[in-house]
Amino acid sequence: MQAVQASLCTVHLGYLLMLVDCLRQDGLDVDTIFGSAYLQELAALDPNTRRPIEEWEALVDKAQPHAERDVALRMAEFVKPWDTGPIGFITMASRNLREAAESLAQFYNLLNDVYTLLAELVDERFEIAMLPLSAHHSPALERLTLATICWHGRWLSRRADLQFDVDFAFPEPPPSQLAVLKKIFGGQIRFDAARSALLGPAEYEILQVSRGDHGVQETLRAQLMAEMSSLQDASTSFVHKVERIIKTRLETGHVSLEDIAEDAGVSVRTLQTRLEESGLNFRALLDRMRHAQVLLYMGDLDLSLIDMAHMLGFATQSSFHHAFKRWTGMTPGAYRKQRLKAGISNKGLVL
Fold this sequence. Notes:
The protein is an alpha+beta fold. It has three domains: 10-67, no CATH class; 81-206, no CATH class; 214-341, Arc Repressor Mutant, subunit A (Orthogonal Bundle), CATH 1.10.10. Helices cover 53% and strands 11% of the residues. The chain contains 17 helices and seven strands. Helix 11 crosses helix 14 (282-297). It is globular and about 60 Å long.
């Protein structure tokens, strides 16, 4: 197979290997489609290798004429939670779908750095949105990601009847693909949207997950946080650069748009413009970073809730409580008690 020019956007090698396995299971001659020499090269790579997103997209395009269904959507049905390693296991160990979605969003960039995920409540609806980290947009990856979340949500909750609306940032596809999309998601599908997102009723987020041991979450989270930190430190993405700056400043409790722009070496206007190119704004990015960080703080019972509010840069305790309830649907104190009840920590409760 012809080599693909390296890109700043990458995917985990698992995307390529899983695609090959999916096609092979469907009876396709992958050696003829991709070339046996190329497949041998893939098999010999380190399992944690990252590959250019264009290489995975080229495989999808090359396989599509030989497949009966949309390759990306077929792959979404094929992939099971455990196929994504620790990320899949931490979703399986979650207490409800909201917690599973938040864990996936937090560590999604270990799978690819083309998009980042944002899981939040929007107008009484639970939404998982895909935000591009660069100018590269991948309709195939958007279909794969949102369809996979849809299938996994049903599997984790043991609710095959769950239906989701979905927004796609790309134009309406041919009728054959549109019919498959409607069958997968079950809800309303819109195209040419501002961003691709999966949407479901707010009550879906509290559906219980009973697939795994909640007590393993902290071990998995620590492992994934170390991998995320290493990945983001090496990333050249502007969004990841800003995230690194915000994370450092969060530890001091002092975060402002002007300070972040100065640390990034750009003007405030340039910072805002470049974030907007990725479908973000400073407030939304700061909110996401605070959300991710507070989940880590909750595992440290030596930290009081007052300490957390200060370290996250909240002016008042009430504003911290309001934000936390918006993120999780629970107060900070109730969330921490729930973690203890689940056996995640045996330390005393600090309020």
